[in-house]
Amino acid sequence: MKKMANMKILFNPESVAVIGASDKEAKLGFHVMKSLIKGGFSDKIIPVNPGGSEIMGLMAFPSITDYEGPVDLAIVVLPAGLVPGVFKECAVKGVKGIVLISAGFKEIDDPAGADLHEEIAGIANEAGIPVIGPNTFGMINFHSDLNASFTPEFSHLKKGGICLVSQSGGMSHLLGFMAMRADVGFSKIVGLGNRLNVDFAQMLEYLTDDSDSKVIVLYIEGLDEPRDLIEGAKKYNGKKPIIAYKTGKGMVGDQASLSHTGSMAGRHEIYTGALSQAGILTVDNAETLLDTAKAMASCPIPDSPGMAVLSGQAGPGMAACDLCADQGLNIVRFTEKTQQKINELLPPLALRTNPVDMGPAWYDSSAIEGIVRAVMDDDNVGGILFLMMFASANVDALKGISGLLEKWGQQKPVISCILSPPGIWDEQIRALEESGSLVNYPTPERATRAMANLWKYGKMKTF
Amino acid sequence: MKKMANMKILFNPESVAVIGASDKEAKLGFHVMKSLIKGGFSDKIIPVNPGGSEIMGLMAFPSITDYEGPVDLAIVVLPAGLVPGVFKECAVKGVKGIVLISAGFKEIDDPAGADLHEEIAGIANEAGIPVIGPNTFGMINFHSDLNASFTPEFSHLKKGGICLVSQSGGMSHLLGFMAMRADVGFSKIVGLGNRLNVDFAQMLEYLTDDSDSKVIVLYIEGLDEPRDLIEGAKKYNGKKPIIAYKTGKGMVGDQASLSHTGSMAGRHEIYTGALSQAGILTVDNAETLLDTAKAMASCPIPDSPGMAVLSGQAGPGMAACDLCADQGLNIVRFTEKTQQKINELLPPLALRTNPVDMGPAWYDSSAIEGIVRAVMDDDNVGGILFLMMFASANVDALKGISGLLEKWGQQKPVISCILSPPGIWDEQIRALEESGSLVNYPTPERATRAMANLWKYGKMKTF
What we know:
The structure is a homodimer of 463-residue chains. The first copy, chain A, is an alpha/beta fold and 463 residues long. Helix content of chain A is 40%, strand content 18%. Chain A has three domains: 1-135, NAD(P)-binding Rossmann-like Domain (Rossmann fold), CATH 3.40.50.720; 157-298, 3-Layer(aba) Sandwich (Rossmann fold), CATH 3.40.50; 300-462, Succinyl-CoA synthetase domains (Rossmann fold, 3-Layer(aba) Sandwich), CATH 3.40.50.261. The interface between A and B is large, with 88 and 90 residues.
């Protein structure tokens, strides 16, 4: 199908026209131009505006048809009434994809909005043009430095393996800024808006072969055709992890969803049940969504729920153990060999079974290394939860594990909560994360929940 | 009782002796000295060590009795076996309080540890000396620049109204570092350790009259005398909010708790039920503990569960509404007058009832101001949840609310999730928080949960 074939060009264009480009800051077309330029898009950018001859130092054209070269992607940011005409020009021009930022279609009270929606859908579908939007902030493909959104600041985000497909621009901004602050990387952020002819199902189909996207994250408010998403997810189940956060539980939420992107949120429980059956892991808040995606993008799935809890202080270890019990993880019983090695490295007054309180080894990074090594050699262990709070006296506590976990961490997950005052261990933690040794979280509970979600996803995959 | 009278001096000493002070970095006595000096304690510091004549530029004494002046507080960091002798010297010297960092008492397998515990308890109780510890990292009183712990970095924490009383040093470090990173201020952090003669109940009694501490936060693993805490909390119920996080749900956790600070964790559900009945709000993770404490320290309690949800984008507003429904908050129906004003400020295509989607007012900070003003005038509204994600086009969206919420925010709670890429809105958010206009959180769900916990606490207070 032509539309699906064009999706790859939509996300990886060699030429982008901004229809409604502007050099006035009060116009969204200004911000879109800035996004493309500041985002470092290195191929052709073509501003289109009947008024201007030059915008941000680039030659502008009155219409897309006045430009002689090819246009792969058109970003449209014009009043809704002008969009059908522009779509026709795009079809004639042979545009391969459109990001339609403009609002004023199906989401408005006026039935004229729905009529416009049908009209432009007809044009796009006939021409085989996939359309992101309308009523969206746009989309970003980080790996090709394409920021096709009205928020230039998205380009500060790190490149990574998480692809966000979202029904809400606000939620996309929230998750994007959270990721910036937590140093988590994304492959793409796609604001589906009113989903003219690209819905969750089409995105899943496209992303299955997108090698940049290791994990797919969905933010869902409501769907016209939930069956398409469910069937699509079942088809791709196991190929890539899919995590979904669905809002719109209450009636009020449903009304909100209707007005927001033009569809009812539907019955929440039916949705989440169906999503789970399709192999999609559901979560119930933005933080867990990002935490889980971060783990999925970097960690192997545990082959058993048996955890080793290694902590530098007993309290955080107990917090992790509590949540393990709640979330279907077990505190494993070590083999005799493992236990013997740990007993050699820690005095009797310490907790040495599991959780292991490594407090007495603070001064001795080789003892911490020895404990981790013993646990890594224990086949009963499906994953390691490693918790270490800085104290002035244990500043060298991480030395023993640098490099040690790198190979093991590619086979089994190591999830940590290592925390210090700002600036002390931050670089060491980043190095451990970048070497693939572990994935770190700001609290023991968030670390444990991420591990539990890896295990839940692993179980889903097998049925 | 002399011991309770001495508590005030323990936390506000004019002279502090460090018994076991050291200038060797491998000794905890080194870090304790550094904490006192770097923490800016401006009164007398007396290092005590039989070997040294000078430690960190201060004259050292072979024993506390060799120092001629008075000693209010003694911090003891010596092998357990030496502690009884030192306690006797402290009693003779007229020391008013002791922080006993040393481990090796009731928490070890050897019954000699329990014997030592009894011995030093006898000495301290007879002399009326309150003792924090043993087996603790220490305590910090931020408002008197007293860092009596082995972690100098605690002194980076901002002064504020939250007092943490914790059975775990690791959890104290975790919460302290979380607070540093979230710019949340503390009054005191107290590591109770094995609780020789200062337990949760004594801390509650002391803190009731401590004007620096607005909110009391407890981290509990297990208690010998839970009844004391419960009775104490009932007595002080309503005077100050008390929030507790209790770990040790599972058997494994219980074993951990036993070895850690010398007592069984006990049956988790019985504990949390009893804590609730005593007017203590219980939470189940470190993040919610800190989030709730932050709100309690700055916000009034809502007089009704009726919320106004004002959001700059629909998605985060829906997430907040979902959690309101789960957590016992209502999305209020505005009065006709309020609704009319909002309708004047927003076009029909927007969500205008509640949640209010202020998206169309992005460019118009006076419209946002008008909406907030209308909602503030509505007596049905018990609190405002304000959610605003930055986008390049709405960079001025906060202008209208600066100053506007300051007075209202002292009567009713305004809790927000305002988020931008690092560095853009951070200063404006800090100014809004410091003026008492609102309290901000990194996600809509965390903001909503903090509001719900304010309401839950308010309901508790009334029975």
